[in-house]
Amino acid sequence: EPTLRESFEKDFLVGVALPSSTVDGREVDAATVAGSQFSALTPENDMKWASLHPHPERYDFTRGDAYVHFAEQHHMKLIGHTLVWHSQTPEWVFQGAEGQPADRELLLARMKDHIDTVVGHFRGKVHGWDVVNEALSDSPGEDLRDSPWRRIIGDDFIQQAFHFAHAADPTAQLYYNDYGLAQPEKRARAVRLLQRLIDQDVPISAVGMQGHYSLSWPDPAEVEKSIIAFHQLGLKVMITELDIDVLPSRGASGIADIARTEASDPALNPFADTLPATVSQQLADRYTSLFQVFLRHHHAISRVTFWGLHDGRSWLNDFPIRGRTNYPLLFDRSLQPKPAFEAILRIG
Ligand code: XIL
């Protein structure tokens, strides 16, 4: 049987996000599967600001470097995730003197120092960077999200980040990455943002659609519309964080609407022991319809990355409710390929 990376070699890279325990030698079996099946690698958490740069004067590249080594060993493209985001970024980044918030000049200087140091450290080793993550708003009538980056620097924090990243590694690809981009209003918002960046000669190569989906959302036709719309701007498109939540439930907008509830409610954790074969088949069918869209647009798409290797380590066991048993990925908790894996291989 061919591997996933072989099956899609002529179409796009097939990537996986891994925790550091898989790349640093602690999880040998997971490492073997990941290293043979996938052609791209994203650190799930270890290149975020809080991991690489926890204190103003301290950078720690130990875990990040383990990904460089793993990617080289297994001939995988390494994706840097992520430089500028409102989440998993320490509080001090946005603080100024005496309990005041930082001002524009200070925050821009911090952003530049971080990007220079991090992108400089990984120069020639990281294939592409998620430069800005999740800057768009989910609210109708609002363009950019209300984040400390935007409040303190202004809307041009995005452009600034891309220019800093390009200066630090002119050969790395640079991406804008966000979720919910198959939703029509957010797609339109993204198109407007990306068009602005292009008009201003911002060095951006591609847009990442995260791809945190569920069994019912989104309609693959809406995913397809977004791929086409972004590609028409002259950008490559990547699916960067693909997983399919099989648990209840998300609102039609794709935004979690159950964050206040309890996992102990069995209605919210219906597959605690095992996933029924019917649901497993629904998952395979969803992945099949999505990959049919991706293949139809293989000229536009440069990479499809899964947000995790196996169900036991998916963030969706804990999001948006902690402690559930979810089944969003291609390998089960014993690292065996699921029907979804076989289904994708068949159409590759
Ligand atoms: C998630 C990780 O998977 C979790 O382990 C962590 O606790 C929170 O972040 N969008 C992103 C990713 O861009 O970085 C997030 O990853 C998932 C949502």
TrEMBL record:
User: Which reaction(s) does its UniProt entry say it catalyses?
Assistant: Endohydrolysis of (1->4)-beta-D-xylosidic linkages in xylans
Q: Which enzyme class?
A: hydrolase
Q: Where is the GH10 domain?
A: 1-347
Q: Which residues form the active site?
A: E241 (nucleophile)
Q: Tell me which Pfam families the record gives.
A: Glyco_hydro_10
Q: What keywords would UniProt list here?
A: Carbohydrate metabolism, Glycosidase, Hydrolase, Polysaccharide degradation, Xylan degradation
Q: What GO molecular functions are on record for this protein?
A: endo-1,4-beta-xylanase activity
User: Which terms does the UniProt entry file under GO BP?
Assistant: xylan catabolic process
**E.C. no:** 3.2.1.8
Q: Which family does it belong to?
A: Belongs to the glycosyl hydrolase 10 (cellulase F) family.
The name this protein carries in UniProt is Beta-xylanase
What organism is recorded for this protein?
Haloferula luteola
